[in-house]
Write a structure and sequence with these properties.
- With about 170 residues, the protein is α+β, with helices and mostly antiparallel strands.
- The chain has one domain: Protein Transport Mog1p, Chain A (3-Layer(aba) Sandwich).
- A hairpin with a 5-residue loop joins strand 6 and strand 7.
- It is globular.
């Protein structure tokens, strides 16, 4: 029964995310601010002012941002190795060099870790970590259950590529 509910949930979520009405437009009214960074969140995500992150409660998914001052992202990412990730409880799946929506360089790490759902059941989660910036590093983390990765990973990746430091 639990697997059937999960499959139905994944199908419903995929239909909502894929709907043309939910396409992102880069307009200032759609941006939200988090820790001095603005981002266009995926459809149906809400800003959680208590934790200062963007969440989708129904899928246990969140996006969180940080600024590391006076440190270029390339210097930070040069220290992120598979061995280091394992010490943090993460299995590194891949590393991708990419471009942000504004054309700046970025690196996205994709990893897997185990956590628990609201009922205490162990689940595999995917963590995306995006690093970009010049003098200061913008660091974005997005966590979501691996079982819905096919439906949610692309919208989250598109969203985190819209981040900009607030002036």
């Amino acid at each position: 029964m639990k697997q059937i509910l999960l499959i139905l949930f994944a199908i419903a979520f995929a239909l909502v995310v894929a709907s043309p009405a939910n396409a992102q437009n880069d307009t200032i009214s759609q941006r939200v601010k988090l820790h001095g960074i603005s981002i266009i969140p995926p459809a149906h995500f809400e800003q959680d002012t208590i934790t200062n992150r963007i969440t989708h409660q129904g899928t246990m998914t969140y996006i969180q941002t940080h600024i590391v001052t006076n440190r270029n992202f390339k210097r930070i990412t040069s220290a992120i190795t598979d061995k280091y990730m394992r010490t943090q409880g993460l299995d590194l799946l891949d590393k991708q060099e990419t471009k942000m929506q504004d054309g700046n360089e970025a690196i996205i790490y994709r990893s897997r870790f185990k956590s628990h759902d609201a009922n205490g059941n162990e689940m595999d989660f995917i963590r995306l970590m995006l690093f970009t910036g010049k003098e200061n590093t913008i660091w974005v983390t997005a966590d979501f259950p691996e079982c819905i990765a096919k439906q949610i990973e692309a919208p989250i990746t598109n969203s985190i590529k819209t981040i900009q430091a607030e002036q």
